[in-house]
Predict the structure.
Amino acid sequence: MKVRNDYKNMLDFTEQLSHGHFDTEIEDDLGIFNSMRDRLNNLKIGFEAAVKEETKSQNMKTELITNVSHDLKTPLTCIKNYVCLLYTSPSPRDPKTS
């Protein structure tokens, strides 16, 4: 019966990991499953680090795109407004053609 309960605890833990719940950990003595428990806990730590790294990477990517977008829009808006101004303003007469 203890082996069955220990096995169920491991299954429950892996189910929680599969749903992204990294705040759980197996600390109980699982008898013959202790080596598996240690490996699963190490796997949890690795998954948690990978998720944090990916989140950090996505945030940096978003920030870069936002900054580049802003840095491109500002001069393009100035150029567009200047071209519109040139287009709508009357052109001065060239003295040679008058």
Notes: The mean pLDDT is 86. The CA atoms of residues 64 and 70 lie 10 Å apart. Helices lie at 2-18, 34-88. The chain has two helices and no strands.
